[in-house]
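// run 5 | inverse folding | seed 20
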C-alpha cells in the first residue's frame, strides 16, 4: 500500500485514497499500543533525523516516539546547539546530515516551503512537521483520524475551525484534508484573522462564533499565535475572549452535542476556557494519542516497509 508521493510536504493535492490509506494504517498501528511491549521492528536499519528549527512539544515528542516504536534509529537536531549558530546554510546542514547515510528527515521550520526545498537537495524522504504559516499535515491527519473514530466517516460532517486562521498552518492542512475527504468546513474568527479567498477555497466563513457553533458538529479551536502576529489585529486578549472564546456558557447556550478539539498548545482563558478543554466533549488528549499512530503510519508508508505481518 504505497502513497502517491515519497514525501509528505502538505495535504494540498494529496488524494483521498492516500489520506484513507494513512488513516487506515494508523488505525491498525494503534492496536500495537495495547501490547505489553508496544514496539515493532518495521523500521530497523532506517535512520530518521528530526530537524526542528522551531519550538515543539507534541510534534517532536510524538515523532520521536513513533520512530522508536518502529525501531528506527533516531537523531535529534536542535538549532541552538548546531552549526546553524555559526552561519551554516540550511542546504549545507542538510547535505552534511545526508552524507551520514540517513533515510528520512522530519522538519519543522518557521519558513514556508523549507520541506519542499529539502526535497531539492537530498534523496531522503521528507516529512513536514510544520512550515511557517503554510501546512502541518500530520496534525490535520491526526485530527481527521480522531474525528473518524468518533463518526465512522468524515464525509458530510461539519467542522468549524475557530480563531487565528490567518496565521495557522493547522488550519491550512485541515481545510485541505477535510474538503478532500468530503467534510464541510467553516472558518470563524475576527475579520482581521480570516484570510481572503476562503469561500473560493471551498470553506464557509462566519464572524460569529455562536453561529459557527450552531452550524458545526465539531469545533477545532486554534491558538492565538502571538509570535506570528503584527500588533493590532484585534483590540485585546480580553475582547478576543469575550467575542470568540469557547466558554462553558457558550457551549451550554448552543444546546447541542459538539466535539471540542484543539491542536495545542492551549492558551487557557483566551481561545478556550479550562472547563471546556477538560470537559467530556473535549477530545484533545485523544488527538495527542492518535498523533503517534498517524506519524508511525506516515513513516512506515513513506519508507515502503509494511507492518502487515508484525
Ligand atoms: N500541535 C502542535 O504542533 O504542537 P507543538 O507545537 O507542541 O508541536
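// decoded
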Amino acid at each position: 500500500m504505497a502513497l502517491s508521493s515519497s514525501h509528505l510536504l502538505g495535504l494540498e493535492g494529496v488524494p483521498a485514497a492516500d489520506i484513507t490509506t494513512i488513516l487506515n494504517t494508523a488505525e491498525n498501528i494503534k492496536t500495537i499500543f495495547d501490547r505489553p511491549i508496544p514496539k515493532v521492528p518495521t523500521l530497523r536499519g532506517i535512520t530518521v533525523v528530526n530537524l526542528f528549527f522551531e519550538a515543539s512539544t507534541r510534534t517532536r515528542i510524538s515523532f520521536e516516539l513513533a520512530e522508536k516504536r518502529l525501531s528506527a534509529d533516531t537523531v535529534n537536531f536542535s538549532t541552538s546547539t548546531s552549526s546553524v549558530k555559526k552561519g551554516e546554510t540550511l542546504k549545507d546542514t542538510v547535505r552534511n546530515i545526508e552524507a551520514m547515510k540517513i533515510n528520512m528527515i522530519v522538519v519543522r521550520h518557521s519558513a514556508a516551503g523549507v520541506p519542499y526545498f529539502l526535497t531539492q537537495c537530498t534523496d531522503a524522504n521528507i516529512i513536514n512537521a510544520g512550515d511557517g504559516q503554510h501546512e502541518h499535515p500530520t496534525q490535520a491527519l491526526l485530527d481527521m483520524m480522531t474525528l473518524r473514530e468518533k463518526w465512522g466517516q468524515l464525509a458530510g460532517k461539519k467542522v468549524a475551525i475557530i480563531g487565528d486562521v490567518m496565521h495557522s498552518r493547522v488550519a491550512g492542512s485541515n481545510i485541505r484534508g477535510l474538503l478532500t475527504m468530503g467534510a464541510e468546513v467553516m472558518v470563524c474568527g475576527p475579520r482581521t484573522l480570516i484570510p481572503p479567498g476562503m469561500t473560493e477555497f471551498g470553506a464557509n466563513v462566519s464572524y460569529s462564533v455562536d453561529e459557527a457553533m450552531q452550524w458545526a458538529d465539531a469545533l477545532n479551536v486554534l491558538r492565538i499565535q502571538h509570535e506570528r502576529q503584527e500588533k493590532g489585529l484585534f483590540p485585546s486578549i480580553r475582547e478576543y475572549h469575550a467575542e470568540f472564546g469557547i466558554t462553558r456558557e457558550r457551549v451550554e447556550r448552543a444546546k447541542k452535542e459538539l466535539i471540542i478539539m484543539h491542536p495545542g498548545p492551549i492558551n487557557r482563558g483566551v481561545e478556550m476556557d479550562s472547563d471546556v478543554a477538560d470537559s467530556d466533549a473535549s477530545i484533545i488528549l485523544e488527538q495527542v494519542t492518535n498523533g503517534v499512530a498517524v506519524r508511525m503510519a506516515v513513516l512506515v508508508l513513506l519508507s515502503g516497509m509494511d507492518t502487515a505481518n508484525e
